[in-house]
Amino acid sequence: MSPASPVLQYGSHSKKRPHNLVLGRTYDHHIYDLVEIGIENFKSMGSFSYDKKLAPQTGSKPFFAFIGEAFESVDELKHLKEILLDIFRGEVVTNLNLAGLDRVYVCTALSSNKIFFSHFALRLKKSGTVVPRMELVEVGPSMDMVVRRHRCPDDGLRKEAMKTAPELTKKKEKNVVKDAIQGKLGKVYMPDQKVGSVPLANIPKGVKRERREAKMMKSESHKQKKQKQDGGE
Question: Of 105, 68, 69, which is closest to residue 85 (Cα–Cα)?
Answer without folding.
Answer: 105
